[in-house]
Amino acid sequence: MASVLAGKMGLNSLLRKQSRNFNVRICTMESDMEFSCEVKWKGKDLFDLVCRTLGLRETWFFGLRYNIKDTVAWLKMDKKVLDQEVPKEEPITFNFLAKFYPENAEEELVQDITQHLFFLQVKKKILEEEVHCPPEASVLLASYAVHAKYGDYDSSVHKPGFLAQEELLPKRVINLYQMTAEMWEERITACYAEHRGRTRDEAEMEYLKIAQDLDMYGVNYFLIRNKKGTDLLLGVDALGLHIYEPDNRLTPKCSFPWNEIRNISYSDKEFTIKPLDKKTNVFKFNSSRLRVNKLILQLCIGNHDLFMRRRWVDSLEVQQMKAQAREERARKQVERQRLQREKQLREEAERARDELERRLIQLQDEAHMANEALLRSEQTADLLAEKAQIAEEEAKLLAQKAAEAETEMQRIKVTAIRSQEERRLMEQKMLEAEILALKMAEESERRAKEAEQLKQDLQEAKESERRAKNKLLEITSRTVHTSPRLPPDLSLSRENLSFDFKDTDMKRLSMEIEKEKVEYMEKSKHLQEQLNELKTEIESLKLKERETPLDIIHNQNTEHGTSKQSNFKKLTLQSTKSRVAFFEEL
């Protein structure tokens, strides 16, 4: 079966070489591209085509990587594509990735597209936990990633929940704390709001400046064995070669900068490194496969070349690129200032418009109130006119009544004379009535006295009846047997129960302030304050039992004031000879 499969693969390879073209798929960090390539094309032809398509000029950082069996390989530039161990099926898939990392991203990365590709790749490695990142740095990096995507923070637009679908933190960090998604978003948004005024490119660069100081940033790890057969890890990065213990990828046991290495070579699975000091013995190690040795050698040569290149005068091409980049940044700065002025003027115009609208609404309200007042005054005037008319009618009616009264008075005067005789007779009758009333008053007084006497008699009768009843009750009560006494009351007393609750003594580990900061962190005091503040905020919510071995190692390094740069300087202060001896004794 295996021979049949190998025969088919060989046939496919033969048919591909006989045809004029073959198809490839290039996967970048943002999108995929497909190209039709000629059979005679070398790796450089395909690589240059991809770089031209992306508009990329800083090509020396990148490469085309493909999967081969249980490892990866990089496409060689000087060999034909089809003559290399690339996948046999079409389209052939390559990943366009950063192969080498800069020592200082801000100084070395010139083009915006270069910076953006690095930003995407580093962010992916951190989120997938290929690069260990402490929690407080993860939150700060997430805030810059959000700024790079959404621009300046705007509370009216970026409302709670706008990051719900975003992947911003490593799962390890999320599981390490008793914090909800809303709590993480609140802390990320608080940092994000402080980045106001930065462009997308500036936010991405800030992200890279923080990420480049992580211990695992830009390091390629390979499993090796020394002469004693001890399993170790070889780390290859922009600064040199580092030897790690298998369970600690953060702190190297020894390091060899590129400027101390004279020659690197391999024979089969054995790898040989010759130090610059000829008096020092070479040191050797073994890898698992020959293919891994090839990959190590490629990375060593490329990183060494870039290490030396950084310390030389820039080439004419790089000088031109940097000049263009400076001009472009200056142009963007002018454009940004112009846009900022326009934005400011627009905001002032909007504020003036809002003020005019507010004033217009105020005047409309005042006009409405004036109209209502005018309407009320008109209604009042109508009512007063109606009252005046009624008063005039009443005056006429009173005048008429006055005339009638005058007439009636004249009539009364006429009749008064006639009634004098009648009044005399009435006075006589009145006198007789007064005499009769006096008699009746005397009779009434006599009757009242009789009624008062009757009331007193009735009261005495009631008192006699009450005394008789009491006497009867007294007599009756003597015949009744005396009832037994009740037993004495039982007195119950309650005992007060008291429970003393003592606070559980909680011992918290106090983190010492890091004694030594990385070079960039020393320049950026505000950044370190942010990291410490974030760390303090979330430290009380940490679940210690969920810490990974790398988290524990990172905390120990932090307690001892050990950083990536300080450890590298400390290791390189030792003589090369002693480091080689130390490596062989591991």
UniProtKB/TrEMBL annotation:
Ranges of residues in domain FERM: 22-311
CDD domains per the UniProt record, alphabetical: FERM_B-lobe, FERM_C_ERM
Alphabetized UniProt keyword annotations: Cell membrane, Cell projection, Coiled coil, Cytoplasm, Membrane, Nucleus, Phosphoprotein, Ubl conjugation
Main location: membrane
Membrane topology per record: Peripheral membrane protein
Lineage: superkingdom: Eukaryota
An MF annotation (GO) of this entry: actin binding
Protein name: Merlin
Lineage: Eukaryota, Metazoa, Chordata, Craniata, Vertebrata
